[in-house]
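In response to the reviewer comment on reproducibility (Comment 2.3), we provide here a single inverse folding case reported in full, input and output, so that an independent group could reproduce the run without further information from us. The structure tokens appear first.
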């Protein structure tokens, strides 16, 4: 089934095919057929865990798949590919595009690994970010490339820091770490493909905390599952300002080692947007973030924005920016203090 994307604002021509009749039963405000379990089981991308979220409207699909949109003006913003049952990726994408068009919206996918399906449907793409991926079977702290990380981990241990999985007992302490971290940042918490801390989610996330010699939590990370549990993606990274700077290195390094022992194949340290100048760096410091993740010697894979056509890029970028920070650019660059 091909999807016409030239003008989603025109009234749809009635289609009496069986596929169209099935799609007619699926509406945006209908509860999702698939859910969080299907997202981590079927989602192949490190961005897949962000398909759902409190700011997203789910689209339940006749294929059994799922998409989630942030609506901004006439745009339906999606984090990445729709979640599709194995073997139904094409049908799920076609259904998603048709449902979006039926709502008189234009689709934009913020972070896609393989653009071939989209290009086959006449859409346009451009590189927008790079994903920092680590093959855990080959991960080691040895070797010259890992020297800085190895020394940092040793420094954290000498400072008396240890790492443990977080539990419900850590909820208040983790909340305090998050609040102190946020007080040092501009614009508060962003969203969309960046997690927002919610202490009630502790039971459902794969999290770690760094604890000092007094037993106080000084740093935290959260990890999300994808690819049937064989992948993890780093989400939140937060520490109190007076914690050793090596605390985060210790948290991530020990998380990687424990994931490898559990049989996880691939870890993503998250996608880093490509730099778009000094103003953009104030909103999201891509250069320093890329340097930090490079310490873990990842392989970098390109990620792409996908929109109906090149001429839509400015409006599509504006819609994506709104999804990350609904308060707008001014709020994003304003200090929390």
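Designed residues, in position order:
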């Amino acid at each position: 089934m091909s999807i016409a994307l030239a003008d989603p604002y025109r009234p749809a021509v009635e289609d009496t095919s069986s596929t169209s009749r099935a799609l007619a039963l699926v509406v945006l405000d209908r509860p999702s057929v698939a859910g969080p379990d299907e997202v981590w089981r079927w989602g192949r991308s490190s961005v897949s865990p962000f398909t759902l979220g409190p700011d997203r409207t789910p689209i339940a699909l006749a294929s059994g798949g799922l998409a989630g949109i942030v609506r901004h003006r006439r745009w339906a913003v999606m984090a990445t590919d729709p979640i599709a049952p194995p073997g139904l990726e094409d049908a799920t994408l076609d259904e998603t595009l048709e449902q979006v068009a039926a709502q008189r919206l234009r689709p934009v996918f913020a972070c896609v690994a393989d653009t071939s399906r989209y290009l086959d449907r006449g859409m346009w793409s451009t590189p927008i970010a790079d994903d920092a991926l680590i093959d855990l079977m080959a991960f080691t702290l040895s070797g010259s490339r890992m020297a800085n990380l190895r020394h940092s981990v040793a420094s954290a241990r000498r400072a008396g820091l240890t790492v443990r999985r977080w539990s419900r007992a850590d909820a208040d302490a983790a909340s305090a770490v998050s609040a102190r971290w946020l007080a040092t940042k501009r614009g508060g918490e962003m969203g969309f493909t960046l997690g927002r801390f919610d202490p009630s989610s502790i039971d459902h996330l794969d999290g770690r905390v760094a604890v000092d010699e007094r037993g106080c939590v000084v740093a935290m990370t959260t990890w999300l599952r994808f690819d049937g549990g064989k992948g993890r993606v780093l989400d939140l990274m937060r520490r109190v300002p007076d914690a050793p700077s090596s605390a985060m290195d210790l948290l991530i390094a020990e998380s990687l080692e424990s994931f490898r022992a559990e049989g996880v194949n691939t870890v993503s340290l998250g996608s880093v947007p490509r730099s778009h100048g000094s103003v953009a760096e104030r909103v999201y410091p891509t250069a320093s973030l890329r340097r930090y993740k490079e310490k873990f010697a990842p392989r970098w894979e390109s990620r792409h924005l996908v929109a109906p056509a090149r001429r839509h890029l400015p409006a599509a970028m504006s819609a994506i920016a709104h999804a990350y920070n609904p308060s707008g650019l001014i709020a994003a660059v304003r200090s929390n203090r």
